[in-house]
Amino acid sequence: MRQKVTGILGIVLIFGLMLAVSTNSQAQEINTIGYGDTVQGTISPATPLAIYNFTGAVGDLVVVQVTGITLGMNPGVSLLAPSQEQLASNDDNPFEPNSTDARIDFRLPDNGVYTLLVGGSDGSQGDFALRLILREPTFDIPLSPGSTTRAALPQDAPPQTFSFNSNPLCPIFLTASAETPGFGFIITLRDFNGRTLAVINDLDSAVLEIPLGDSSYEVTLESLDPRVEGVVLLSLTGCDDLPTATPEVTNTPVPTLTATPRPFPTPTVCSVAATGANIRTGPGLNFDIVGVLRSGTLLQALGLSPDGIWYAVNFGGAQAWISSTVSVLLGPCGGLPVLPSPPTPTPSPSITPTFTFTPSLTPTFTPTTDVPTGPNNVADPAANMP
User: Fold this and answer.
1) What CATH number was assigned to the domain covering residues 21-135?
2) What is the rounded CA–CA span in Å between residue 276 and residue 163?
3) Quick one: which H or E segment has residue 24?
4) pLDDT in tens, 58-101
5) Closest by alpha carbon to 104, among 137, 127, 135, 69?
6) Domain with CATH 2.60.120.380 in the chain
7) Which of 61, 243, 303, 314 is the most buried (most CB within 10 A)?
8) Burial classification of residue 46, based on how many CB atoms lie within 10 Å of its CB (0-12 exposed, 13-18 middle, 19 or more buried)
9) How many CB atoms lie within 10 A of CB 267?
């Protein structure tokens, strides 16, 4: 069986929860929940919204699960930042057919107290169970364009996690195929924020088309039947070796991107904005990543690369670069100068990784505003752009 998924990017699911916390919190109880806790609550005419606070740290990858207990209870949940800005929301989990459960996977952007709002979708009421999970960091195996990774999945093995970056110049294809005849596996794709973009199962071959950008992605691979062992081959196809034949298309539903940009006041100097853009030492993907420009943060623009594709920015008092394909200019930006590129770094020799899973490894899932004043915006292994 061969499947193709296109348009892989994040999903923003807004289901109309009441977000006026400042008004409702005066009349409603605010509960506390911690990582690993499962609590029960009730949605009723007297309490149409349940509010929970938890303390999180930057980089924490949290999983929020809400299950209706009362027959007909269709819960929805929203995650708010310490500033009360909505980060994510969900009503019906799109990757669990016929499920009315709500689920959020998200990497926290800051230290502080976060808020969970639980309500009844479509006016439903009743009891629910809320669970908050912290996904521990995992050992990511990097994938590189033009290389093939051999992943051995023993019996009863935990999922394996791989990571890669998309390309701002062209789409790339991630191909997964069973080397072991008849071996079925499940592949899950997540973005830099830890949000699930696609889940494909009950197959022995899959092709994921990743749109252009410089985003970081995470792929989780596991056996469809834990009692069966097998080997899966993973490969990335880049700009220079795109497939000439169109992969077979199936009717697998594919989520599409609905971007919700954070509003900015008009800056007084030319600035660059993005939502998780990689900051590099030079204008090219072959330069090192030194930081991440997250949503809600601006960097002063200094100039353009000779080809006009990259913006030079002031990052912690030093010159750095961000791709124009994944960022925008704001403010008075006329007459930006063309700046020379720094010396091209010496490329490392290409190596085709081979990985065999060792069952002794700890099973886990993978975990990822104000002009920054210094290089405390360190490179995030889960950043999503140049």
Assistant:
1) 2.60.120.380
2) 16
3) helix 21-24
4) 888 899 999 999 998 999 999 999 998 888 888 877 667 677 88
5) 135
6) 2-9+138-257, 21-135
7) 61
8) exposed
9) 18
Contact 96, 257 (CB under 8 A): no
**Token output for 21:** 């916390």
Give me the CATH topology for the region 2-9+138-257: Jelly Rolls (2.60.120)
Asked if 270 and 301 touch (Cβ cutoff 8 Å), the reply is yes
Q: CA dihedral defined by 85, 90, 95, 97, rounded to 10 degrees?
A: -170
Select from 378, 361, 318 the least CA-distant residue to 152: 361
Provide CB contacts within 8 A for 258, sequence distance 6+: 11, 12
CB 123 within 8 A of CB 72: no
Pairing of β 126-135 and β 172-178:
unpaired
Q: How buried is residue 276: exposed, middle or buried, by Cβ count under 10 Å (0-12/13-18/19+)?
A: buried
Q: Which residues have a Cβ under 8 Å from the Cβ of 275 and sit 6 or more positions away?
A: 259, 261, 262, 294, 295, 384, 385
- The whole model's pTM is what? 0.52
Distance, CA of 266 to CA of 332 (rounded, Å): 9
Which of helix, strand or coil describes residue 141?
Answer: strand
Measure the CA–CA gap between 317 and 371, rounded to whole angstroms. Answer: 11
In eight-state DSSP terms, residue 349 is P
Residue position matching structure tokens 């169109």: 246
Confidence band of 53 (pLDDT split at 50, 70, 90): very high
Which one, of 62, 164, 52, 57, lies nearest residue 107 by Cα? 62
What is the C-alpha separation between 98 and 75, in angstroms, rounded? 14
Mean pLDDT, rounded, for 261-282? 70
Determine the residue type at 63.
Answer: V
Return the structure tokens found at 363: 């099973």
C-alpha torsion sign, points 235, 238, 244, 250: positive
Do 205 and 178 touch, CB atoms closer than 8 A? yes
Contact of 200 with 252, CB cutoff 8 Å: yes
Q: How many residues would you count in the chain?
A: 386
DSSP 8-state assignment for residue 338: B
